[in-house]
Amino acid sequence: MRQYELAGITVATVKAFVLEEMAIAEDWDTQSLLLCMVYSIDDPSIKADALNHLLVMPGHSQHQAVTFEIQKLKSPTSIPYIRTVLESGFDFLSYTCSDDGVIAKWFSHALASIGTPEAIDLIKLYAKSGNAEVAEEMAYRLEKIEP
Description:
Elements: H1 3-6, H2 14-24, H3 28-39, H4 44-56, H5 63-73, H6 79-88, H7 100-114, H8 117-126, H9 132-145
């Protein structure tokens, strides 16, 4: 039995439940528990869909953990969501107190892990970013994955 099933939530409703609750969760513990519900989803497409929506959702403090899970899942469906965050300029990630290069590193790893031509093209695009920190990180990752 999955964690979310103990709460009476089904695989069909877990994504909606997590997104609704994450939007109002104010403390780190609650957000972490909600993210654990997503981690326990067996269906990779449902799991990726929930993670993708959490990635672009402002107002919670779990974006690095979400990105790491996306990296492990390696779903090409995450690419447009990563693009959205890269295009955002990271304003909603200011709570991390991380430099843009550090945040870009999360996404460079995720894209490299996904590894599709579309993912690599996004790394190449941001290796030419006007943001020097983002460009440097993406160029570095590109050197690591291309011969």
